[in-house]
Amino acid sequence: MQRTFVAEFWNKAGTVNLKKCWDIPLTPAVLVMLCSLQAATSAHANDRSGSWGPLLDWNINPIHAILTPGNTLMTFGQGGGVEYSVWQIGMGTLPFSRTIIGNNTGTDLFCASQIVLPDSAKVLMTGGDQLGGGNPGNPNTTIFDDQDNSLTDAGITMEYARWYPTTIALPNGEILAQGGRAHDDPNVPVITPEIYNPGAGWRTLNGATSEYAYGGFKWWYPRSWIIPNGLAFGISGNSMFYVDYQNDGDIVSAGNFSKQHTFETSTAVMYRPGKILQLGGGGEGNIEGTPATNTASFVDVTGSWPVVTDAPELEYARHWADTTILPDGNVLVTGGSQLNNSLGGDGPVLTPELFDVETNQWSLMAAEEIPRLYHSFAILLPDATVLTAGGGEPGPITNRNAQIFSPPYLFEGDQPAPRPIIELASSELRYGASVVIRNLSDTNVIDRVTLVKTGAVTHSFNSEQRFVELELTARSGQQITAQLPDSPTIATPGYYLMFAIDTNGTPSVGEFVHFAPDPGYVPPASPIEFCENVTSPGAITTYQNIPAYETPATIYSVKDAWGGLDGEIMYQWFRSTEPVDSGSEAGWEEIPGAINKWYTPPPLQETTYFARRVKRSECEASFTTSAAMVEVTNTGTTPAPTPIPEEPVDEPINQPEETASIDSCNYDLAYLNNGWGWDAVNFKSCAPDGNKSAVDTCIYDQSDLNNGWGWDPVNGKSCEPRVTE
Questions:
Q1: CATH H-level superfamily of 418-457+468-515
Q2: CA contacts within 13 A on the Cβ side of 141
Q3: Beta bridge partners of 418
Q4: Which of 255, 390, 408, 464 has the greatest count of CB atoms below 10 A from its CB?
Q5: So what's the pLDDT on residue 118?
Q6: CA dihedral 364, 366, 369, 370 (to 10 degrees)
Q7: Could you tell me whether strands 628-632 and 544-546 are parallel, antiparallel, or unpaired per DSSP bridges?
Q8: 507 near 498, Cβ under 8 Å?
Q9: How does pLDDT run across 268-279, given as a tens digit for each residue?
Q10: Distance from C-alpha of 353 to C-alpha of 577, rounded to nearest angstrom
């Protein structure tokens, strides 16, 4: 009967169906019971779906986690921020392996950031909450030392108080802090990044101050990485941007992330150097009960500009999921819920999904026992398993517990797979050098060697994890030689787990290794064209039909170009008589002087296509809009104007020459031309007083971009600035 009962309460996702059990009190004990029974009824072979260990008592609700080189997992962040827990991983999972320690620094670490310092192996903890009520941020700097498990105030503060900031390691070993907010009532985002130098303290990057990147709700743990060109790249809310952290700093928009899976409840991971997977979440603000999305995107930043493409959809929509890079380079997604921080709707998602980077496919894994919602985490452990923990404060349940997942690569059928055993001569690595790995197993043939940076995770984002595959360059007996990355932009300085993977795909236990920072490192000069580019080319009006020699209607912008931060958007019109694609250069010629977002073509004799290029001032790259066709419906000619008979006179009289018998001047856009109109019949400008003999063919549409000078398309030359009162 238990199997029938449980089947009524759980759907195929391993998620609670509260529509069918609303009258059952959903206490944590009931959830554990139901989850355990459900997992027992939906077992699969471990080498296909992995396996979960038992629940572990954690004593605190661990919101933050960081793996240290001393083989400890330091967790903290329970509401109040006055305690932290240190797990000695080598002692196993029994309760005595975890120590709860008081926090005597006077700093509330609730929703701070954490990172292992690349030079000292100590943990830098930045900002957090303020003790004493309310939700203001703090500017404090706290240091954790895993040698004695001590937590101390560093005695230095940031320029800005930061609650919910992100910290990442720079190629020279410094630490970049971004985002966070100073206070929540009213919402005061911190829009200026800062840099921590272990010897000199903090300095601000005033040149990188940006409302675009960090304002609104974009202060909330900005997703950020060092990318191959040496810059920091970020996705924060619906903004993408580059940060130049040298000198006073600089920042530039990299376009709008116009996908549904965005803002703080989504999760993102750089699964290969310069290649990012972002998924889940959906909508601005941490609003309980809002629905999540199951969509995902790839963001490729290996080139000079981000390329965003759709990734395969997940089986389940998830708010507050976590993404974890595994030793084989695949990505595990755990936790989350269909409704934000809620047990309602389709319930919490207990079934992890594994993304295979090579096949571009998702697979469902075995269900965990406890919902992991807001304020939970997942992190890779040295033995290639994944720990999930926490959730709550606030939340429908508060989880002072954890559980360990063993991925499918650790099994042959339902039995543990034999694992490679490796030995290194030294744990210190040098960029561009080789590393020799000794295989101590006679039965496992090493096929791959990988590096995964030790994690630092909170609020659905692991700011430090990154994956690097090493090239195997030599093999001799039980020894293999692998080539290390030659740049700290590929493997930023700090501590990594090195894994050897055999021909069956089974990884060894990871060995802690270290890349020392080079304080003198300077990124390549101008790694990208640092300009305010256009991220959307806009669109122009559609086709129109006209008789020959009739003036076509003005081609207007039905959707304006936009993007970037500062600088003017510049327009240039092109024409072609061949129906080629608007994105092609072939067949198109530039129209001199046509440098506005709208364009009125002159009378045409043949069908003509028009397109518009747009760019930011000082940028080389440009975009082309859709083409608009003006189709000429006949080839007749316009009749010659009727001459005005001259009255006979005895001697010549000097008169102004009239060029037409009708007033064909149009002054609709005279306000753009200092009062001058356009004579479409005679194809020339009209003076403000209607005098058609005064010909002004100069165009001043964008004289503000040319110091007042215009362009004369008739005579093919510039026009001096007009002097107006």
A1: Immunoglobulins (2.60.40.10)
A2: 20
A3: none
A4: 390
A5: 97
A6: -30
A7: parallel
A8: no
A9: 999 999 999 999
A10: 53
